[in-house]
Amino acid sequence: MAFLTHPALRCPLDAMPLVLENGSLICERGHRYDIGKQGYTNLLSVQHKRSLNPGDSKDMVSARQSFLSAGFYEPIAKSVMHSVSQAAKSPATVLDAGCGEGYYLHYITEHQQDPLNIIGFDISKWAVQRAARRCHGTWMVASNKNIPLADSSVDVVLDMFGFPDYVSFERVLAPTGRLIRVTPAPQHLIELRTLIYPQVQQVASAHVHPNTLNRLSSEPLTFSVELERSTLKQLLLMTPHMFKTSVQGRSNLERIGSLTVTVDVVIDTFTLAGS
Predict the structure, then answer these.
(1) Are 161 and 64 in contact (CB under 8 A)?
(2) Residue 256's CATH number
(3) Mean pLDDT of the region 231-256
(4) Alpha-carbon span 71 to 89, nearest angstrom
């Protein structure tokens, strides 16, 4: 897939506009960022890298792509698509902050009739490589802490099960823009969590938000999926539970053939206060 340049792109070092020149993005101070043959660019500055290959590993990205592509979370994607349709006029610029392998943006572009400018970034280069292969867009390796986009340049910011940086989100949102967040609710994956943990802890509330944002809506979404053991392993690998599961928990997972799992999320839509 081809990398699509966007006028809002900014250099992560000096916030100067980036323009396309001979297959690279260049700012007027000479900073150059190559566009890979896979259709993405790396705009993750060194100070925002915590390791050589930050973010999800190849295996985690592969598990997420296999699980999501099977359609288990399609009700979430469909609800988010409707929220995007209501939030912005066409042609809107939609940013997925922490886009993973691009499932949600790809779903939106496939099912949305109005044209969209899509931008996705993730801290994992393995994720962005896969996202760039899914559909045309502006795909970047980047961080929530330093989103390489101009102020007030985005109509919709998506935060799908992510770790929000509200200051950055508010900076890039247009005055009438919308932030759409999908967060786990108390019963999310409760059956899987009961299986792998000796004691299930309550899901932390994600409903606290800064007073610089107004919540326009909060929509609960709950449904069940029947998962075979191999698919449960994919689900586990794509969640933070992977790093917390004990040996006993993994053993419990190996002993079952299938499991009905509850998906329980909340879809919140915010606007900038005063807009």
Answers:
(1) no
(2) 3.40.50.150
(3) 87
(4) 27
Q: Is residue 6 part of a domain?
A: no
The residue count of the chain comes to 275
The packing angle between helices 103-111 and 125-134, to 10°, is 20
Q: How many independent structural domains does the chain possess?
A: 1
Q: pLDDT tens-digit profile of 72-92?
A: 999 999 999 999 988 777 789
Helix or strand or coil: residue 222? strand
Q: Which residue in the block uniquely carries the two structure tokens 């409903």?
A: 207
The answer, as to whether pTM is greater than 0.90, is yes
Residue type, 2: A
What ranges in the chain are assigned the alpha helix state H? 58-69, 74-87, 103-111, 125-134, 166-172, 190-196, 229-237, 247-254
Query: CA 33 to CA 150: how far, in whole Å?
Result: 17
How many angstroms separate the first and last alpha carbons of the chain?
A: 37
Q: Please state, in angstroms and rounded to a whole number, the distance separating the CA atoms of residues 51 and 54.
A: 5
Spell out where 130-255 has E strands.
138-141, 154-160, 173-184, 213-228
Q: How confident is the model at residue 114 (pLDDT cuts 50, 70, 90)?
A: confident
The answer to whether residues 103 and 69 touch, using CB atoms and an 8 Å cutoff, is yes
Q: Are 214 and 193 in contact (CB under 8 A)?
A: no
